[in-house]
Design brief:
By secondary structure, the protein is mostly helical. 82% of the residues lie in helices and 0% in strands. It has four helices and no strands. The N and C termini lie far apart (44 Å). InterPro entries: DUF5658.
Length: 106
């Protein structure tokens, strides 16, 4: 479970960064209404929430307070698979723009 929770925490941070870039350059829309409201209120609220959520997962790991019931294990596995798919989509949409910005500066 520690590896799965760590993986979700890392995905969450990466998703926050790549979503921020995608939103900033109008490449994507935020599909989660809560996250969209946070971003529209202040992009730093959006990023801060992502950092806090990942930090919370690491606190659970650090203090060995991970849930051990089967349902949580199944949900963690499903969430990891879905989150990975979302990250792949974000990267497909955003990476070409990031690369063009990087190469246009040199």
């Amino acid at each position: 479970m520690k590896k799965a929770f760590s993986y979700l925490a890392i995905l969450n941070l990466f998703d926050g960064a790549i979503t921020f870039i995608g939103l900033r350059y109008l490449l994507i829309n935020e599909g989660n209404p809560l996250m969209n409201d946070l971003y529209e209120a202040n992009p730093l609220f959006f990023l801060g929430y992502k950092v806090l959520l990942s930090g919370f997962l690491y606190i659970l790991i650090r203090f060995n307070k991970l849930p051990t019931i089967r349902l949580v294990k199944v949900l963690t596995t499903v969430a990891s698979a879905l989150y990975t798919a979302v990250i792949v989509l974000h990267c497909v949409w955003v990476t070409p723009i990031i690369l063009s910005l990087f190469t246009s500066r040199f």
